Amino acid sequence: xxxxxxxYRALQRLRITAFARRLSSRALVLCYHNVTPTDDPTSRDSxxxxxxxxxxxxxxxxxxxxxxxxxxxxxVNCVANSSPRQRLAAVTFDDGYQGFFEFxxxxxxxxxxxxxxxxxGNAPFGEEVFWWESPEVRRAYSPSRLENxxxxxxxxxxxILATLERNSLPADPVPVYKKPAAWQTIAAxxxxxxxxxxxxxxxxxxxxxxxxxxxxxxxxxxxVIRKHTGVTAEFFAYPYGLWNGRVRDAACRAGYRxxxxxxxxxxxxxxxxxxxxxxxxxASISDPAFQAWTAGLNLRGRRGV
Length: 305
Known about the structure:
There is one protein chain. The protein is 40% helix and 12% strand. With 305 residues, the protein is an alpha/beta fold. Strands 1, 4, 5, 6, 7 and 10 form a 6-stranded parallel β-sheet that branches. It starts with a helix and ends in an 11-residue tail after the last helix.
């Protein structure tokens, strides 16, 4: 990790990062998950989902200076029309955490940066945390176990939690900003200019589902969002970034204008509207690494968490 950090700083000092950015003709779609208070001692986590506000603010100010940050719909239109996309960027968030609405959205409005939040349709109904925020999952986490949870167990929270040993000791309460936002909060932000997209109904791995369940995840999630906010989601983000040709075709048939993956690599499609790549930004990324990743220089060979 220390070696990679030194390499990213060297790339920045030698202006290789800036040169790579000038050569790139790709549009940039950033994917975040949550933003937390700067002084939150639990901000750093193994999954890299909770970014401190100070880090996010630096990234957004740099992004606004460096890119033409546009609404996601405008970026999709440029892709569809084969318009120039150099230095074009859009900001997205997954899941609909309260922390986004409490900390990130006010900053984005202040900076004049548009954003889209992809919502999990069933999440705002209760006080429960997302399954990956549970103490049992946090204790049991490892990269290999995560892979198993998302593939063999289909990213199904109930199934995953049922396999984990419950600790009889009381767990520390999860802060409100690490829970799903309420519909009232989401609807108010939408009226204030926030764009809403769908991120499935239950956040399961869609490629594991049969055709009926897959259609339900795609269609019912949009219906729930429309019911509670009055907004019809035009775009879809695949849960966990997992998808295949069958899932892609189902998103197309469901009527979405575009759908987004987490396949931001040299080999990923940049023109298929239902397989558009996003760059997943881990919470602990350094500024030199973030700037290098946006230019296509990812020394770790991975797209994030």
